[in-house]
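Hi everyone,

Forwarding the result from last night's run.
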Amino acid sequence: IQQRDQAIYTQTVAEGAAFAASDTPLAAQLNLAAYHMQRAPDLASRLLSMQNTPLPAPLTGDRNPAYSVAFSRDGHTLASGSYDGTIRFWNVANPGHPRALGKVRISATVLSVAFSPDGRMLATGSSDGMLRVWDVTDPADPRMLGSVQASLQPVNSVAFSRDGRTLATGGDDGLVWLWNMADPAHPATTGGPMNSPAPVNSVTFSPDGRMLAIGGQDKAIQLWDVTDPGRARELGSPLTGQSGPITSIAFSPD
């Protein structure tokens, strides 16, 4: 029995080393299994060296490109929007074993998804120019709350302010609108649009909700003061220096 156990241990260690470069998640599982058999110092070192390595867990079920993903603030739910118009929800409370929840489908490509801060709503922007708001209190059974024609061209990006009261949309027409979300079933614009000289690919609020960053095909980032959503004003000159279009923007937490 000891010889058999030693042979299994040796093989597990060897396979863990063999998969270290090609399949990191499998290598980590094999190393952990071997460590449970024999708490060898070299295995402990391997596991410690892998503790900050991303270990991907594939989310299957969609054969089409996913254009946008978003986590709920508690980190337990992930939403994705895809080329074929499908919006999927996943329980990722245990990241190593994600579990599919509900899904809905619209007749347009979903280009952007964003959770409200409380996680009870999801906003989506799509190729038909629509802003749609979904009740995702139960992600296994998402229901549409309302929709509005936000643009005559694709809506490429949607973003909630930190307090959830305002939503920003930006799209191919170069216009960025702020929406009052007091009545999610009937989003209403708070004023005139912010203008960009080129199609807008990304909009995002600063963590305090007082500033909006806009990035697009013109290779520049505009910063707007949106403290009063009805009277947004541009802050200084655009941030330039990129050699290509701005496709995504993110603020640090502070």
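The mean pLDDT is 91.

Cheers,
N.
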